[in-house]
Amino acid sequence: MPDQTTTQDASAPGGAPTIAPDTSDHDALSIDVGPEGETLLEIDHVTLRFGGVVALNDVHLSIKRGEILGLIGPNGAGKTTCFNVMTGVYTPTSGEVRFNGKVISGTKPHKINQLGIARTFQNIRLFPELSALENVLVGCDARHKTSVLGALFRLYRVRPSEDQLPTNPLRRSFAKVFGISRHTMEERGGRIRAMELLKFVGIADRANELSRNLPYGYQRRLEIARALATEPELLCLDEPAAGFNPAEKEDLMDLIRRIRELGHTVLVIEHDMKLVLGVTDRIVVLEFGQKIAEGTPDEVARNPKVIAAYLGEPDDVA
Length: 318
Hints:
Helices cover 35% and strands 23% of the residues. By secondary structure, the chain is of the alpha/beta class.
């Protein structure tokens, strides 16, 4: 599998590196999903109040399996709050959130992640003292089945395939007779998957570097890789292009499309209208905690309410 290459972008401050598209075959990263077009997640008339402040007011929207949905609106519109309701950070005051037909309102965030929803954050949240590879391994661990005691005492053993056997003759013979601990197999598989994800997002050459030392754009990509490591059906990206130059935004759009090709459904919060209009299938617009528009990118771009609330007043109104 070829490594990512970088090029210098003259429009970036200091000639910051941009990442060339990865055209490698990533079938090993694909996930099994149901038929496209089915409702994957539904926010059913959700209201969220903080004391006298109404953060979300009777918001209703759905996300179809296999689509890229954009969630936009001016600052304070309730976009990230909507994310937080979906991912279990907040419990709605009224209404429900359903994922694959199951009510998940009030469920703990880690349980929602196990059900198949992962997210990135507006402010990057990596483990700064861990390497890029180790950060992704944390995400891989979310799908491991071995308990702490099972890992410590190697309580569960599995029969390895021929290509999973150790190369050392003595260990190879032992593994054929007694098997290999499930924890060891999960760790091996996790490391392979983590490296594949780092290649997928274009930062495999920095796998062993501490995440705090990575350039800002690489940290953004690392956070996406870590979220993908949990094998989500729905990936929620909270302003993934924040701080990016135009070339990096083009690369990000390509990455989002390739994430969808792996089988993931994608929800994107983003202020950059060029990115949203260029990569999404459908857009939902919030203003002051209420949904004011929904439709294709072309429909939303021409919607007078969206122009007034988000894109500015038309010339003939100003």
